[in-house]
Amino acid sequence: MGKIALQLKATLENVTNLRPLGEDFRWYLKMKCGNCGEISEKWQYIRLMDSVALKGGRGSASMVQKCKLCARENSIEILSSTIKSYNAEDNEKFKTIVEFECRGLEPVDFQPQAGFAAEGVDSGTVFSDINLQEKVRDLGALQGAVVYWWGNPFGEQRSIQSCLHFFLLMILVFKWLQV
């Protein structure tokens, strides 16, 4: 299957360095089997700190799972070197914030939750454990700072759009990469 990248486009005001925080950050995804097309009903998470051995000693992945419908073993790996923050200078441009190596599993939906962090541009104040699933999130030191989230399914096009307002508008997009 190759690589699938999560890209972010945002209009940042008074914040920078928006990023997932730590190796235990949970990327909540719904997965599709590349063999039979079965899509998981429940949200599954993968973390950088998790490593599961592949059958036959062919390495490891962040998640290995057997499809409930066709019984094929599939895997997905978070490519740690691709995790990037979204900064004020990236304003209103698409930027890849993470890539996944997909071997039989294809992410079809993403649900941001807790574990994001950002910094105030002028104050340098760090806001950690930002939960993007909450409809409204008061960040305290920045007056009027709120976080909104809602999402849309992938559909047939191998791309996803989810919108976030972080006193800004963000669009999260999974995009198929040619390898």
UniProtKB/TrEMBL annotation:
InterPro entries documented for this protein: CXXC_Zn-binding_euk (IPR008584)
UniProt keyword Glycoprotein present: no
Protein name: CXXC motif containing zinc binding protein
Protein family according to the UniProt entry: Belongs to the UPF0587 family.
Pfam families assigned: CXXC_Zn-b_euk
GO molecular function, one term: zinc ion binding
Species of the source: Suricata suricatta
Lineage: superkingdom: Eukaryota
Keywords associated with the record: Metal-binding, Zinc
